[in-house]
Amino acid sequence: MDFSTLGKGLAALGLMLVVVGGLLWLLGRTGLALGRLPGDIRIEGEHVSCLVPLASMIILSIVLTVVLNLVIRLLNR
Fold first, then answer.
1. φ/ψ bin of 41: left (φ > 0), alpha (ψ from -120 to 50), beta (otherwise)
2. DSSP readout, 6-72?
3. In this structure, what are the phi and psi dihedrals at residue 57, rounded to the nearest 5 degrees?
4. CB atoms within 10 A of CB 40
């Protein structure tokens, strides 16, 4: 692998990270209840807290599955 290919790959990875970071930042500002849905388990002790976002991850998985399937179908045409 030459440096040109490696550079293009790193640039693409960096661009993807910027896009994903921006989307997460915007989602955080919308006030969505991800992490606070019924079915998300939150255990808080005196010095320890633990969050297991089961319902949020199931919803996120369903949404990402639908979006990725649509993108793949559109690209295969």
1. beta
2. HHHHHHHHHHHHHHHHHHHHHHHHHT--TTSSTT-EEEE-SS-EEEE-HHHHHHHHHHHHHHHHHHH
3. -70, -35
4. 16
1-14 per-position pLDDT tens digit: 789 899 998 999 99
Residue 10: Cβ-neighbour burial (10 angstroms; 0-12, 13-18, 19+): exposed
Which residue(s) pair with 60 in the sheet? none
How confident is residue 40, by pLDDT bands cut at 50, 70 and 90?
very high
CA atoms within 13 A on the CB side of 40: 16
Residue 50 to residues 28, 40, 60, 75, Cα–Cα distance (Å): 20, 11, 20, 40
